[in-house]
Each structure stands twice: as C-alpha cells, then as structure tokens.
Amino acid sequence: MQLTKSCILLVLLILLEWSDTTAAEDSNAVDFREDEDGTVYIKSGVGRDIVIQPGYGGRVIINGHLQVCETNDCRAKLGSRKNPARSCKAILEDDPFAESGVYYIITKPYVTKVYCYMDYIPGCGGGGWTTLMKTDGHNSTFKYTSALWGNKEPYNMPGGQSGVDHKETKLPTYWTMPFNSLCLGMKTSGNTSEPNWIRLKYRARSLYSVIADGRYRSTSLGRMAWKSLIPDSSLQLNCNKEGFNAVRVDRHSVRIGIISNQENDCDTPDSRIGFGGAGTSCRTDGTVSTGNTADCDADNGKKSIKTHGYILAQ
C-alpha cells in the first residue's frame, strides 16, 4: 500500500513539472497560423516582441511590396492603389529596387494605372519613364489630323498597362504629366528585338500643351537621331524641320518628328519620320501614321515603313 502511494506521488510530481515546462514554452513560443484565405498570422507569447531586422541596406518586403512604417502608422508602397505617385520617376526614387510594371499614377482629378519602365533604356538613360502613348503606324488612330492629339480624352486605357507591344493607347498622362524629357521609341512589325529609342530633352507642362494648339515648336536632335529610330530609314537632305507640329500644308506633317526636302527650303518636303504623320507629295505613302515615308532624292531611296511607336516621359 505504501509503495502504491509513493508511485502516485511520483506521477503527480512528474505531471506538475511537465505542466510548468509546457506553460513556460507556450509563453515563449511564436505561433504561425494561416487562414483559409491564405492570410498568415505571426503571434508571439504575452509580452514578447516580434522584431524583423534586415541587414545594412536591406529592406522588409511584404508580398513584393516595400512597407515603410513609422511608429504605429504604416504607409502603403508609393505607386500602390492606396498611395498613388506623381510619376514613375518618383516611385523609383522612393524605391530604387522597383521593377517595371503597372503602378497607380495621379492624373488629377483621377488616378490611372500606368505601365512604368524602371530599367535603363538604351538611348534614353536611367529608368523611371511614364507611359503617355503607344501608336501603330498601320492604323489611322493617331494620324496627324486625329482629334486625339488635340483633346483630353483617353484612348484604350488598358493598353497603357503593358509595355512594348502592339496595343495603341493614350493615357491621361498625355495632358497631366509635366516632363523634362521624352523617350521616343519605334519598332517594325515582326521585329522581335527591343525598339530603337532616342531621348528628346524638352521641358513642358504636358505633351498636350505642346501639341494641341497646332503651333510649331522646334527641337534640335538632328536628322541622324531621328533616322536612328528606324533601321534602313530614308530622308531627303535639306529642310530638316523637326519638333512638335512640324508642318508644311498640303505636303508632309508630323506631330512629333522631322520633315525633309531635296531642295534648299522647306516649301515642298517629301519625306518624314515621326509620330502622327500625314502627306502624300512625290508619290509617298500617306497611310504611314507612325514611321518613315520618303521619295524624290531621299538619301536611302523610296521608303514606306510603318512602325509601332512608344512615347514615354520623365
């Protein structure tokens, strides 16, 4: 009988010790739990902190998005739906590791989903380029006389949520985005390589502000820079009137680009490279709305090259 009581006491002591140990472990434990919707919870014991401490130069990444926290307030990532940005450049300055993709950009009085080019673009430079427009030279959507150049109406906004492709678009950034430079790109159909790009340094309140009124505004890139947009392109040697709304009535015109002539004046230009083109003089192809058309002693012969165009701002 005495042995039995001793055994019972021993068992009770073991149970009490196990209970105390378990309680201590529970108070120190960190609980990981996942809900049916995929939400993950991390819960520490009572009075215990959870510290996430990246190394020098490191960041805390939550589902690919940087969270910047101050005390108990947490600011959503710049460029997210809850914290739209002024431009793609502002997003990249806030997070140098931001990748190319769709972000939320302020286009007062609205917010617009815009594709941002965050990588270095050969011919244009460092990233942070905001999409304004994408054009297709096979279509008349953005020909010189299109009302889209002169109004504040968007066109195919979902097309502005992707990068280099064949989708035409005009985003509200066309009339709301101030810029110091434009990045202009062109590529021909079926060409699997990246577009050829040139950087046009020009300061304006918006692209709308330098095009919509139809006034000519000059630039000084030079004819070879414009020709570099399109392999095997052709221009006449003279005139070389370039910029915004480069026009010779009843001859050739471009909203952004260059017109040229074989004579020592700009009275009868018969060639052009650019966006928003028109003109059929000297038997040239008037249907090329973006690209290159040329004849009459052009430096690389007669051409009719329709391209896809990309207009970005920074």
TrEMBL record:
Signal peptide segment: 1-23
One Gene Ontology term, aspect cellular component: extracellular space
Keywords: Disulfide bond, Signal
Gene: LOC116287120
GO molecular function: oligosaccharide binding
UniProt keyword Signal present: yes
Taxonomic source organism: Actinia tenebrosa
Annotated protein name in UniProt: Uncharacterized protein LOC116287120 isoform X1
Record PANTHER family: INTELECTIN (PTHR16146), INTELECTIN-1A-RELATED (PTHR16146:SF46)
Keyword Disulfide bond among record annotations: yes
